Amino acid sequence: MTQRKLRLGAFIMATGHHIAAWRHPGSQIDSGVNIDHYIEVAKIAEKGLFDQVFVADSPGLSYRGKDQESFSRQGRVSHFEPVTLWSALAAVTKHIGFVATASTTYEDPYLLARKFASLDHISKGRAAWNVVTTAAQNVHGNFGLNQHPDPATRYEKAHEFVEVVKGLWDSFEDDAFIRDAESGVYFDPAKLHTLNHEGKHFKVKGPLNLERPPQGYPVIVQAGSSEDGRELAAATAEAIFTAWNTLEEAQAFYQDVKSRLAKYGRKPEQLLILPGISPVVGRTQEEAEAKWKALQDLIHPSVGLGTIAHFWPDEDLSKWDLDALPPYYPTPPAGINSRQHLVIELAQRERFTVRQLYQYLAGARGHWVVVGTPEKIADEIQSWFENGAADGFNVMPPVLPESLNDFVELVIPELQRRGLFRTEYEGTTLRENLGLERPANRYADAADQARKAG
Ligand SMILES: Cc1cc2nc3c(=O)[nH]c(=O)nc-3n(C[C@H](O)[C@H](O)[C@H](O)COP(=O)(O)O)c2cc1C
Description:
This protein is an alpha/beta fold and 454 residues long. It has helices at residues 35-47, 68-72, 82-90, 109-122, 151-169, 227-236, 247-259, 285-297, 301-308, 338-350, 354-362, 374-386, 402-417, 430-434, 444-453; strands at 7-11, 52-55, 97-103, 127-132, 177-180, 185-187, 197-198, 203-204, 219-222, 239-242, 272-281, 369-372, 392-395. The protein has an eight-stranded parallel barrel with strand order 1-2-3-4-9-10-11-13, surrounded by seven helices.
């Protein structure tokens, strides 16, 4: 039996996941619009044999606070559109996969199917789509809507959207293109299929004006953790990004999502569960902690307060003593999600000061942060991997490129020594490297039989 191998993605956030990363000397200050930075980062990840690089996205600038001073200190207000970015990087890399986020609430299925099929061809089979319904509450104005659709509507639309896109990717059968200069026949029209989709949310005729992607379909990724999000993942996704801070929470999620697959006729290994981990690596524990402290000290108080102001919408937090307990813990205001409820509970239980609360959130927006030696980080990864909590991880470097380099130089060799991680790429496509099957074309079997019969 082949040993189950850990899957690793690098979650690339311009200057890094830490909120103050852009001020750190180890980051590239203008990285959001610096293609050379992304080339460097993708090459580091490929050198480390990562399965994929991933960028998150929202089709608009979202900012919760009202404070202009805090806003002016945000390092994340300007960055590339993901498919465009990955298309450029596909040309300068060979093995690494590219996960681009795109919204089923605000994009158009035909155009999206075409973009991702193009990326899959350009990268020779290394594309993936992170299907999101868009978390940001305030981008609807960019699309002529008066409000952000409610979660149930967004998820209902998402199911139909993904089905339409897959249908469009099947427009041409895999062997539809003959391209025989001698006979002058370019393709076989019998192997071209028109979708003619008419559903509740979309009416899309097809076919797509691009041949089937090398992977059949680009890999489908999902990142929601609500009931609806889990169900969408079970029905359609092949990898799911998620965020947990303890082994027990991660195990419960893993169990829950894997157990939903059977009703869609799917096997547990057809969906990879990849929690986030933000590693702060040092050669010694002291070095790692010093690195972490240096980063935390770079958080300007107004930026820190900006990350928690929505918990107390009626207060002027700038008057508060940062090193005292908040005057009261709020009842979470309507509209914030379940993870933020947990943050407030945690702050109350641990008696966080105002500064400690924002420092907790600033690291990786509440994702799991591990500060330590390569051995300690590998221990944590191994423990989750071997105890039913993860099939791999979405590694979230606090500072880019520096922290990704640290991970590749120090943690990857430790994972390889333990036999947990690959020492070379197994395949040429992202699907092959992730151990995922290539989906059959929905029309091919039926069409073959009809051709034989007729
Ligand atoms: C690792 C990770 C990455 C995510 N990336 C995005 C993103 O790029 N864009 C987005 O709109 N939402 C993103 N989300 C949020 C989810 O897609 C989803 O909208 C959010 O979790 C709320 O959905 P839920 O209520 O199903 O959890 C991400 C979530 C996680 C855990």
